[in-house]
Amino acid sequence: MKSRISTFLLILAAAATAFYLWDRSKYQIASTMALPLKEFSTAEYPEDPAERSVMNGRYRQRALTLVQKDAKHFDFILESKDPAVARIVWKDVDVSLFATGQPAWTRAHEGNQLIALTDREWSRQQVSFKKGNPHLEITGGDGYEATNLFTADLAKNCLNAGLWEIQLTFQENNNKALYYHAWFTFPLGHYRKLVEANSGVAYSTIWRRMEHWVNPEGAALDLAGLRKTVSERVPAAIFPRTERVIAGGEQKRKMRCVTADNIRTWADYFDGREVHFAAFIKPGRYSVQHPWKHQYWRIGDYQRTILRDIVSPAGTNVLQELELVFRDTRTGETNRLFVGGFDAAQLPQLPIADYSKGFYRPMGISVPPFFQSYDELEANIPWRSPYFSFILDSKDRWINHHELSVDGPVMHRDEKDPSLLHLYLLSYERHALVGHFLIPLSVDHSARVLHASGR
Questions:
Q1: Residue 198: helix, strand or coil by DSSP?
Q2: Neighbours of 227 (CB within 10 A)
Q3: pTM reported for the whole predicted model
Q4: Quick one: 63 exposed, middle or buried, by C-beta within 10 A (0-12, 13-18, 19+)?
Q5: With 60 as the cut, is the pLDDT of residue 338 above it?
């Protein structure tokens, strides 16, 4: 008996030691750390949809050093042994604004917290620093970068925790042109502390979700915890299924990432045709060798739109929410797309051709835009945002929008009629638009319903 107990204790001690060493190795940090960079050549990354500079590939072979300034602020130092390559430093960057977190009002409900944290980690956040920004310094080199640098971007990509990117651009022909792109891993030891501070949750309880893409399909959400409904109505919204598809902005560049034949109208996405998108794989690149499918039958039959006035826990202003109701064409079930926590009166008025300049967001709760400047990020703290967007079934259970292949909404008001809202659906990884809805914002008194409940 004693022998068995001794053996058990030895096994337990060995397991504890192995866990300690694993944890120490994985999360070990220092105030100054050299971070390995991955740079892909054109031959290694032919699917790259970026608009490339004529100088692309001419300032490579760089190294990255991370320097911790305090609990939240870091310097990112990008340099090279090649004297022609400039030294670029992102100074005193508040990395907590990049790290996954959640608003105070999702912490009391398990499902709301789970989706807030999961979608925040699954959402791309690319932040630009323009030349002249006090947080950006560029020195040395042959002078070309120092003279012509347009933006220096840091991006937390939408894969596992810690996977980040650097993008440097010049301005050519009035466009942003990429000349350098590299991938690195932000140290998880630093990252987990930032996540804990942002979320109020022990990282040890969520690390697998953050680092290994655990799918929370079916998690129940409490809509009343995200907003209080003031009023609602059913506007005479339309989905012009036979309208020809639209492509601008990054969707025009990403056409090479979509494998599909004869997609001419919105209806073509929903009639069962084979459509594959280039998957986004580690460390953060597109691959046509890894096709991503869709489940558009789950939103195959558009039914109606509900427009609500709401109040968010984030403040006292009356905001808007859209609920688009669909019928699953395979099962007959009802599924619903929600986009809420926005001020319709503040949406820009744009022509359809400029839709990409509108309200352009990922799915999730209190998630920041895909792209913004560092100044905008500092002025709009993510976990204070009233915004939310997700797809639920009829029982308020979360549907995995990545597997469905809808990654966010785009919205703007009509360039001529400010009471007409245009809503577009972004496909998986924003490769394409897969729907266009026209929603009147003016009140139709015959359809107005006042609500006393919080639903």
A1: helix
A2: 24
A3: 0.91
A4: middle
A5: yes
